[in-house]
Every structure is written in C-alpha cells, then in structure tokens.
Amino acid sequence: MSQEARSPVHFLDVAVEAAREAGTIIAQAANRPKNISYKGEVDLVTETDHKSEAAILARLRHHFPAHAIVAEEGGASGPQAPSPYKWYVDPLDGTTNFAHGYPMFAVSIGLLENNEPLIGAVYNPVTCEMFTAIRNEGAYRDGARIRVSSVAKLSKSLLATGFPSHKRVQNPNIHYYWEFTLHSHGVRRAGSAALDLCSVACGQFEGFWEFGLKPWDTAAGMLLVREAGGMVTDFAGQLYHPGDAGMLASNGLVHAEMQALAANVAAQAPANVAGSPG
Question: How far apart are CA 242 and CA 240, in angstroms?
C-alpha cells in the first residue's frame, strides 16, 4: 500500500467524495414519494437509505479494499486479513425525518484506526454543509475552522438529545430530558445524532446526550466535537467509544455539571429505568 493510501488526508478526501455522492442521492429523492419498510415496530428504512449506502460502500471498497466496513443497513464487509482500519457508515442519519419530509438528516462516515476515531465526515444535503475532522488536526465546516462554545454554565446552555425507536418504555431518557430542560435554556430533539454532534462542535449547542447509539451514529460526530475543543465521555466520565451504552458530549465547560445532573437523575429515577438501556 502506498504512503498516500495510508494518509488520513486521503482517507478524508474519499469520505468527503462518498458523502457528497450519497447526499446528492438523498437530495434528489427528498421531495419524491418514499418507499418505506420497517426493521422493527417503528424503526423504518427507505429505499434511499439503501441507495445511499450502496454508493458509499462502492467508493470505500474501491479505494480501500483492505479496510473493514460496517454500515447501518447491513452492508458490512471485511478484508481477508485483519485491518487496523474500520469504517462506520450511516447512509441516512435521520431516516424518520426524511420519510416525513422534515429537513433534518445527514450522511455520516467515520473511520477508526485501532478502535480510535481517525477521520470524520458529516454532510447535510439540505444545507449542503460538510463537516470534517482529522484526529489532532481540528474540526471544520466547509473548510472553515469550528470550535465549541464558551458558555460555562449549564443554566445558560442549549442542549440536545434523542430518543430510540425501540424499547421506548424501558428507555430512561425521559427522566433526563425533564431535568436537563429545567436546568438549561432548553433541550432540542432534532432526530439526527450526527447533526446534533456537529452543532455541539460548532458552538450552537453546549451539550448533547443520548442512550443506545450505534457506532455509525457517533464515529464521525464524536471526533468533530473533540477536535473542536469539546469533550465526549460516557455517563461515568470515562472516554467514550463508539457503541458505548450512553454518550455525553459537551463544550467541556459544562461537562461536569451535565455529568453530575445525570448522576442525580439516575439515583432518583424508578429502578426499572434508572440505568442505561440494554
């Protein structure tokens, strides 16, 4: 493999190309009737998810046949020999929004090297914004450097969260939503974890939390937050890894307050919903 083929810049360039191609597919289908199917009782998927994923995977496999790939709609593949590189692909983060014509969805592509985020690309096909990051090289929106906000108090913060499409009764998040709403300027629930994390990285939100996110939901966005100067941990304050049960992301300045409030909620919530969902 050539030196260029192992370059994070090259990895990111390909991810950006793939995200833009997928975004074009999504944008062209946005105003057309949707062919909707279900992966569960309320967890829906559209033909556009599959078309977007196929385009991304074709490009990644062409450029990086030795890399492992895990994609939301089942397009996983792996090399014959173990690879330190693993791509996580969400071809349409915010499918429910897309299916209902609500303009809040994105393409998210992240690459891990030895299980640590290396590059991330999140593309919003509605606004045509591209968010990118390379480990230790900063976070960017359309090529301009972005940074987390300087708000230092939870009471002056705007937050974001999300709710799962499955196990709604068992999910504890309604308790956290209530308390975080009372202790902040408010909580937004846009329906795309990738875009929520981009908003933290841009300083639009001071914090974000959610339970049960999959690796393809967070692999790109978590790197953007960190590279923009923020923090991403689990609810215990330990370093977050894609696929962990709970995520807490912030500008860093309100992180301790968010963590303390979350711990208080967990201690007081009913026993059957106090912990992170399985």
Answer: 7
End-to-end Cα spacing for the chain: 40
Model pTM?
0.91
Sequence-separated (6 or more) residues with CB below 8 Å from residue 53: 22, 71, 72, 73, 75, 89, 91, 92
Residue-wise pLDDT tens digits, 194-234: 999 999 999 999 999 999 999 999 999 999 999 999 999 99
DSSP class of residue 67 equals S
**Helical segments of the chain, H only:** 8-29, 47-63, 95-100, 173-182, 193-202, 215-227, 255-268
Question: What are the chain's domains?
Answer: 4-145 (3.30.540.10), 154-268 (3.40.190.80)
One DSSP character per residue, 122-144 reads: EEETTTTEEEEEETTS-EEETTE
Round to whole Å and give the CA distance between 117 and 139. Answer: 13
Nearest one of 72, 225, 94 to 162, comparing CA atoms? 94
